[in-house]
Design goal:
Elements: H1 7-18, E1 32-44, E2 53-65, E3 68-77, E4 80-82, H2 88-91, H3 93-96, E5 125-140, E6 147-163, E7 173-174, E8 180-181, H4 186-189, E9 201-213, E10 218-229, E11 243-246, E12 251-256, E13 270-283, H5 295-301, H6 317-322
């Protein structure tokens, strides 16, 4: 299954929606809503390839100003990566190990600690489950339009779990008695990183997205988010940090293994999520023309929700119908006093 295979249909639907005439909805200060975003996730590190898997988030969004929004969100990503990309098994011998005769290992062999090096039955892939808790600030580029692109940046905390194979690693390991067990990757087995709590530390999400207002309250959204992490172990491996393995004890030691020839020390990993979803604004009433009458009220009384002076007499609709002293854009306070 490829989670992005439906992307062409989604984009076609987006074009259809965007070309359909609808009310001039817009991002307005004081409005707040809940939403979700779902799509694909990709990781960047020593085993970067073209693999994508699931990713998405749920969020609460608040428009502080027309052009500025704050967003709190919980995000999930489950990127996969090929263990043999760019001949990695033969390249990273400090991680995958060597055969007794000194030759490189292959997919389907086992790491020094006995866990299977993912073979064709696991699509030669491992996977990482990532959970992050983030706060974003977004700049709305066209807040007065129904299609509102935005850019954003934020900060958050992250936890992650790296597993052999396509799921949880069940049956990919071997215990002391030689029985199949849950596989544990070498970096975790060597104790190179924490495996509980907020073990990923800080994460910095940046990106761009859009809101497409379908109604006053319902929004079709899309977003691409690149997350810079503070851990090099999203793939369980960081060149220059791996430990040596003691065959006599069947454990990794505290001694750092030398870097393989031609391999540079590693750095922190990153991951990308791209998806679409919906937002529903549940707090705050839309008033597109700023005349003091909400859109729903304007529809009831028959005035134009996008024109603060429907009859063109120089007085805002809000002043004429409900005595509002709110001054719409293009008017002065002297005109209604």
């Amino acid at each position: 299954m490829r989670p992005l295979r439906f992307l062409p249909a989604v984009l076609a639907g987006f074009v259809l929606i965007f070309s359909t005439p609808i009310a001039q909805a817009q991002s307005q200060a004081g409005r707040a809503g809940f939403g979700f975003n779902a799509g694909g996730a990709k990781y960047f590190g020593e085993f970067s390839d073209n693999s994508w898997w699931l990713g998405g988030d749920i969020f609460f969004r608040y428009n502080v100003l027309d052009w500025l929004s704050l967003q709190a969100q919980f995000s999930y990503a489950n990127p996969r990566y090929r263990v043999d990309v760019d001949n990695a098994v033969a390249k990273y011998t400090d991680y995958f190990g060597l055969n007794p005769d000194g030759s490189p290992k292959n997919v389907g062999d086992r790491f020094p600690n006995g866990t299977l090096i993912s073979d064709d039955s696991e699509e030669r892939r491992n996977n990482t489950r990532i959970f992050s808790y983030e706060i974003l600030a977004a700049i709305n580029l066209l807040p007065g339009e129904k299609f509102n692109p935005f850019v954003f940046a934020g900060i958050g905390l992250m936890s992650y779990q790296v597993r052999p194979g396509l799921s949880g690693g069940a049956g990919l390991g071997v215990d002391a008695a030689g029985n199949r067990s849950v596989g544990i990757l070498p970096g975790q087995a060597a104790g190179l990183y924490e495996t509980s709590g907020i073990n990923g530390g800080l994460v910095i999400p940046v990106g761009a997205g859009f809101e497409l207002y379908l109604t006053d309250d319902l929004v079709f959204n899309g977003r691409g988010t690149l997350r810079f992490t503070t851990t090099p172990y999203l793939d369980d491996y960081n060149p220059g940090s791996m430990r040596t393995f003691d065959n006599a004890t069947g454990r990794y030691t505290s001694t750092t293994a030398p870097l393989p020839n031609g391999v540079d020390a590693g750095g922190n990993d990153a991951f990308l999520t791209i998806g679409v979803g919906f937002t529903y604004y549940v707090f705050g009433n839309a008033d597109y023309d700023g005349d003091g009458i909400t859109n729903s009220q304007e529809r009831q009384i028959g005035t134009d929700e996008n024109n603060p002076d429907t009859d063109g007499d120089g007085l805002p609709d809000g002043y004429e119908y409900i005595g509002s002293r709110k001054v719409p854009r293009g008017f002065t306070s002297e005109q209604i006093n």
